[in-house]
Design goal:
The complex is a heterodimer of chains A (116) and B (113). Chain A is mainly beta. Chain A contains no helices and 11 strands. The mean pLDDT of chain A is 93. With 113 residues, chain B is an all-beta fold. Chain B is built from no helices and 12 strands. In chain B, the strands form 3 sheets. In chain B, strands 2, 5, 6, 10, 11 and 12 form a 6-stranded mixed sheet that branches. A 4-stranded antiparallel sheet of chain B has the order 3-9-8-7, with no helix packed on it. A two-stranded antiparallel sheet of chain B has the order 1-4. The radius of gyration of chain B is 13 Å and the shape is globular. The chains are: A mainly beta (116), B mainly beta (113). Chains A and B meet through strand 5, strand 9 and strand 10 of A and strand 5, strand 6 and strand 10 of B.
Chain lengths: 116, 113
C-alpha cells in the first residue's frame, strides 16, 4: 500500500509568492492532519479534516494560510503571500478511526519550505 | 484535551546499552492511546510503538518497549541494546476519543560508539 504522499518535497520561494503544498492520504483513512515543524515551536497542528470536512483550523497561524480537501484523496495547504517566517517542514498525516485500529497517524515525508 | 510532556531535551547513551525516554501525559479521556515516533535526521516520522489505556501488558516491538504506569501517568520508551542508527528525535504522542493527537516536544537521542 502506498503511504501518505506529499509534494513537493522541497520548495524554495521568494517572499510574497504563493505556495501550495499537496497531500494524498492513505486510501480509506477518514482523518487528515496538517502539521508544521520548526526548531523553535516543535510540531504544531495547523488544521485537520474528518471525512473531507475541516473540523478545527485554530492552529492556522494567519489568514495567509488556507487548506482544502476537495475529496477523500487530496488536500492542499496554501500560503499566500509567503513570508520568511513560514520557512518550516510541513507534514501531512492521515489516520483511520474505525475498526480495531489504534488511530495511529501515518505521516508523509514532509515538504521543506524555504522562503527567502 | 490531552497534554504530553517530555522533560528530556537530549539524551546520550553508549552503544549496546539500554536507554529510557520519559513521557508523561495528562488527559480526561477514559480511553486513550499513547504512541512513540522516531524522527531521524532524514526527517520522516516513523511509528514505533503503541499502548492503549486498557492494555494489561506493556507494549513491546522488537528492541522497543513501553513502560506504562497508569497511576503515574507515564509512558516511557525503553530502547534496549542501543544502536548507532537509533540516534534521532523521539516524540511521544497521545490520542483520546477525539482522535486528535497531541505531541510532546521531543527528545533528541545520541548513541555513542
Amino acid at each position: 500500500d502506498a503511504g501518505v504522499i506529499q509534494s513537493p518535497r522541497h520548495e524554495v520561494t521568494e517572499m510574497g509568492q504563493e505556495v501550495t503544498l499537496r497531500c494524498k492520504p492513505i486510501s480509506g483513512h477518514d482523518y487528515l492532519f496538517w502539521y508544521r515543524q520548526t526548531m523553535m515551536r516543535g510540531l504544531e497542528l495547523l488544521i485537520y479534516f474528518n471525512n473531507n470536512v475541516p473540523i478545527d483550523d485554530s492552529g492556522m497561524p494567519e489568514d495567509r494560510f488556507s487548506a482544502k480537501m476537495p475529496n477523500a484523496s487530496f488536500s492542499t495547504l496554501k500560503i499566500q503571500p509567503s513570508e520568511p517566517r513560514d520557512s518550516a517542514v510541513y507534514f501531512c498525516a492521515s489516520s483511520f478511526s474505525g475498526g480495531a485500529g489504534t488511530g495511529e497517524l501515518f505521516f508523509g515525508e514532509g515538504s521543506r519550505l524555504t522562503v527567502l | 484535551a490531552q497534554k504530553i510532556t517530555q522533560t528530556q531535551p537530549g539524551m546520550f547513551v553508549q552503544e549496546k546499552e539500554a536507554v529510557t525516554l520519559d513521557c508523561t501525559y495528562d488527559t480526561s479521556d477514559p480511553s486513550y492511546g499513547l504512541f512513540w515516533y522516531k524522527q531521524p535526521s532524514s526527517g520522516e516520522m516513523i511509528f514505533l510503538i503503541y499502548q492503549g489505556s486498557y492494555d494489561q501488558q506493556n507494549a513491546t516491538e522488537g528492541r522497543y518497549s513501553l513502560n506504562f504506569q497508569k497511576a503515574r501517568k507515564s509512558a516511557n520508551l525503553v530502547i534496549s541494546a542501543s544502536q548507532l542508527g537509533d540516534s534521532a528525535m523521539y516524540f511521544c504522542a497521545g490520542l483520546g476519543g477525539s482522535y486528535i493527537p497531541t505531541f510532546g516536544r521531543g527528545t533528541s537521542l545520541i548513541v555513542h560508539p
